[in-house]
Amino acid sequence: MTKNQTVLNWVNEMAALTQPDKILWIDGSREQEKMLQDEATATGEMIPLNPEKLPGCYLHRSAINDVARVEARTFICSREKRNAGPTNNWWDPKEAYAKLTELYRGSMKGRTMYVIPYCMGQVGSPFAKVGYEITDSIYVVLSMLIMTRVGPEVEDMLGDSTDFVRGLHAKAELSEENRYICHFPEDNTIWSINSGYGGNVLLGKKCFALRIASYQGWKEGWMAEHMLILGVEYPDGQIKYVSAAFPSACGKTNLAMLVPPEIYREKGYKVWTVGDDIAWLRQGPDGRLWAVNPENGFFGVAPGTNAKSNPNALASTSRNTIFTNVVQNLDDNTVWWEGMTKTPPTNAKNWKGEPWDCTDGSKGAHPNSRFTAPAKNCPCISSEFENPAGVPISAIVFGGRRAKTAPLVYQSKNWANGVFVGSVMASETTAAATGAVGVVRRDPMAMLPFIGYHVGDYFQHWLDMGEKLGDKAPKIFNVNWFRTDDEGHFIWPGFGDNLRVLLWILARCEGKVDARETAIGYVPYAKDIDLDGIDVDEETLEGLLNVDRDLWKTEAEGIEEFYAKVGDPLPKVLRAQLDSLKAALA
Length: 586
Ligand code: GTP
Ligand code: SPV
Ligand code: MN
Prior knowledge:
Blueprint: H1 5-18, E1 22-25, H2 30-43, E2 47-48, E3 58-60, E4 74-76, E5 89-90, H3 93-104, E6 112-120, E7 129-135, H4 138-147, E8 149-150, H5 152-158, E9 165-170, E10 180-184, E11 189-193, H6 198-201, H7 204-220, E12 223-225, E13 227-233, E14 239-245, H8 252-256, H9 262-267, E15 270-275, E16 279-283, E17 289-292, E18 297-301, H10 311-316, E19 322-324, E20 327-329, E21 334-336, E22 348-349, E23 355-356, E24 370-374, E25 391-399, E26 409-411, H11 415-423, E27 426-428, E28 440-442, H12 455-469, E29 475-479, H13 498-509, E30 516-517, E31 522-523, H14 538-544, H15 549-566, H16 572-585
Parallel strand pairs: 1-6, 3-19, 4-5, 4-10, 7-9, 9-11, 14-25, 25-29
Antiparallel strand pairs: 2-3, 6-7, 6-8, 10-11, 12-16, 13-14, 13-15, 16-17, 17-25, 18-24, 19-24, 20-21, 20-22, 22-23, 26-29, 27-28, 30-31
Helix pairs in contact: 2-4, 11-12, 11-16, 15-16
This protein binds guanosine-5'-triphosphate, sulfopyruvate and manganese (II) ion (MN).
């Protein structure tokens, strides 16, 4: 247990409020983890899986009304309303604290309060930051042990500093009406109540590493982004790093763990995973942009993950993994989800724990069912994963799910134009958050639900970072793996074949390949994307690269509307970018 008086005072204060029977300080030891696994097994909160086939693995079922992030109940409680901006729900911090205080009061009676000291980033790294999460959920403790770095070294790193994020989580009654995920950026504080699921409660993840950290990065001159980080290794051994921002359930984990197509593997190409969801980026001593993955595990989407689409993710889940809301195969006590194999198990329970055999057409696993797997399980984890200095970024890639409009890939004209491209991203919504699925919405930099301050200030911060980086700034691109044909089928094969696009991107960064200038930016010549070994002909590729003037005119109207919503704080530079786009389309 820490000697840090600020931590101790805060924990005492939260304990006085929530009134737990016991307080347990989490120390990161295997013994303590085992004790908690056994206790959660005894209560049924965690179901141990087949120890031969899935050693150290557990299944957890969340409450049926609690299966995804709840954006409508997520608040930025800045002192001034203006600072939450038009894309966040704002709540006056005094009112939020008052309301939630009443909800927390006595909520841990009869329960144990766990206090988790954790570090986002490599302990001791200049990027790293300490958080404490108080929770009454063993599931949260066991998940945080996988997703973050926990242990006495974290408390040593903090010393007697007061610079840590204070996270309070209580399951309470899991009531939907009283579910609140509140962020107090000016107080380094997160209060979450009445949920037990994923991004609502693993407070190191979206709440700290994106919402609070984006605010800290703005104040301190660095960036917290919803980005994967990967390294492409060339046959000569050289490795180039790319970070990519796609909205939730739009392919970050898959791209981060990409397996090169066979003909590339034979030549010696490899892809290494540094991170699959979050990147913290700052200018390094050499003037370039460097990135670390602040997480220590993957909280990945289960459905669709299989030995062909993402063998590395599947391998990552082979041991010491928690599965949430997937199918339990009762024949051998393993797990299953849609898209894992062709044939569902016949003797099984669905994600709700009901007998299930798929004959009624219902889904066995929830569409947002997930695995929580240690990063070190990943066969393609980068040798730089633990490097406290991070990796230098050559290219930043934005992308989303667009059935039409966005071409397979294009390059922005310069940093400011790249910030424009990121700021006007749009994507179809997915099951990762509650609400309608498949609706196109603006999702700037894939950060719409994660920016902890005013979106206009956030855009300005991106522009300022570009000024600082100057000619050492990464090049900015946009990709879309999700264009569909008239029958609604994806045209581009995606997954491993996305390497073909990454190689064009990296070739552009080194000035090794030409491109065609269009109204929206530089688009590849079809001949420059290698189609060897796939079932896509050059004509189809031309189609995928097409920039449709009419669709883009409609797009420009959508951007206009979104920018109007951003209001006055919208940087003039971006307004000018929109005007030149319109002029180029006219
Ligand atoms: P979060 O963890 O929610 O942030 O999601 P993510 O961005 O990591 O998405 P993930 O890689 O888990 O992919 C989500 C879904 O998109 C899965 O069903 C994948 O099978 C599908 N997907 C990923 N990459 C591709 C691709 O290149 N093409 C197609 N068609 N689908 C893809
Ligand atoms: C996402 O929704 O982008 C996720 C899952 O990565 S969650 O942790 O629930 O936010
Ligand atoms: Mn995510």
